[in-house]
Amino acid sequence: MSALLPGVRVVMVCGGKGGVGKSTVAANLATALAARGTRTGLLDADLHGPSLPVLFGVRERPTVRDGRIRPVVREGVRLMSTGLLADASRALAWKGPVLRGALRQMVRDVDWGDVETLVVDTPPGTSEIHMALAGLLDISAAVVVTTPQRMALEDTRRCVAMLTRLGVAIPAVVENMAYFPCPCCGARTEPFPDSGLVGALLAETGGAGTRLVELPLLPAVAAGAEQGTPFAQHAGGDSSAAGAAFASLLDALDDSLHPVP
């Protein structure tokens, strides 16, 4: 639980490499939690490249009441991002104390209400932002997102090592774009040649309690991100591979956040 947000479970979504779909997974995870009935917030902590406004199709600015910022609500999720506070064309150059101060404000000065779980979308890599978040919040768990490519996995190793040093549990690694299911026959095609690399990484890092979640390459997921309507909002009870992947991710988080005594 967080000292700044008492009683709130904080789930970081991390990715060592840029472009692996981390923000898309974070948006869909938050939406899936809300669709299940969990009071959910999503903090876009990628201060240099905020993605949340595009992923949720949000254009309006948050309002302020009694000196606190009120999050914008979409798909049942309370949203906060620097992308909602500044023009899209403005270059955001955050450094050192200013960066840490901005993160603190986005946690402390936002009226998160009765949120039960806060999903935090972090920037790629192992940055100062991750260290600042670890100092501000008690991180309940982290989800690591990667693709089955050697370039991505080298950076994913560093990400996993950082989380391990911080003592953060990793209940799931999401292998994004793991395969493409044929819309006609359902046959599985793997777009990257080195299949099995992510599973090998888990074994190598000793992730015995970490679940591998394979998220397929599907037009519906990509279209949802482009159109500002996260796929998971419409995936409840869906038998599709993507719906099953997010269900598996929620189960992994449940096992981590609510362990059986």
Automatic annotation (TrEMBL):
Signal peptide annotation: none
Domain of life: Bacteria
UniProt entry tagged with the keyword Ribosomal protein: no
SUPFAM superfamilies named among the record's database cross-references: P-loop containing nucleoside triphosphate hydrolases
CDD domains: Mrp_NBP35
Homology family: Belongs to the Mrp/NBP35 ATP-binding proteins family.
Subunit-structure text: Homodimer.
Protein name per UniProt: Iron-sulfur cluster carrier protein
